[in-house]
Amino acid sequence: MFDIQIYSGKDILNKLIIIAGPCLAESESLLFETAEVLVKAVAGREIDFYFKASYRKANRSSVNSFSGAGDELALKWIAGVGEKFKIKTITDIHSAEEAGIAAGFVDCLQIPAFLSRQTDILTAAGKTGKMVNIKKGQFMAPSDMKKAAEKVLAAGNDKIMLTERGTSFGYHDLIVDYRGLKIMSDTGYPVIFDATHSVQQPSIGEQSGGQPRYIENLTRAALAVGVDGIFFETHPDPRNAKSDSATQLPLEQAANFIDRIVKIYDFFKRLD
Fold first, then answer.
1. What does residue 234 show for φ and ψ, rounded to 5 degrees?
2. pTM (2 decimals)?
C-alpha cells in the first residue's frame, strides 16, 4: 500500500512524516482498529507514515498503572499490524538489551524522553541499523539533541529523527519553546513535533493529566515553524485508555486532524 522508504538526514526527505497510533498496545483488536482508520486517512497522500504503539510502558506515574500485556505478545501484535497493512511501525525501548529484541519486530526504535541521554541505549539502538527516533528529554536543551544523535551516529547509523515533546515548566506542566524546533532542525536531522505529549501535565495524579484542547493550536504553530513531521497518539476511547487517557486524540477525530496537518504543511512548503 505504501512505499517503505528509509532516509538519512534531511537531504532526501521530501514527504511529511506522521507518526500515530495508541499510546500502548492494550490489545490486538485495539491496534488493528486504530491502524485501519489511520491507514485510510493517509492513503493517497505524500506522507511517510509510521504506526506507533508502545509494547510496554516503563515509566508509569503510579505503581498501580497498567504497563503492558507482555513484551513478546505486544511486539507480535505491532508486527502484525505492519504486515497486514504494509506500513512501517515504531515502538519504544527502555534498555540496551531491548533494542535488539524490538528491532526484530518493528521498523523504527523510539528512545523515550526520560532515556534520551542514556549512551548505552542510544548506541544499542544505532547498532540495529533501524531508524531511531529520539524524543527530547523534558530536562534537555534543544541543542543537547545533537549530542544524543551523535551517539547513534557513532554506532554507524545515520537514520535518525528528533522529536520535541515539551520542556518541564514547574513540577506538573510542560511548555513548548518553538525556538527549539529550529535549533534541533539545524542538526540536519528530521524534526518531529509531538502534538499530544506536549499538552501533558506529568504525574498530576494516578495517571498524568493533560489539556488536549491545545493539541491543534500547538500543532499549527509547529508546522508554521517548519517541522518535518507530527507525532500524535490516538485511541477509540481515550477516557478509558490504559495509558495517557488525558491526552490521546479521539480516533474519530484522527482523519480530520491529519487532513488539516497536510493542508497546513503544504501551505508553508509553498512559501519556502
1. -145, 150
2. 0.91
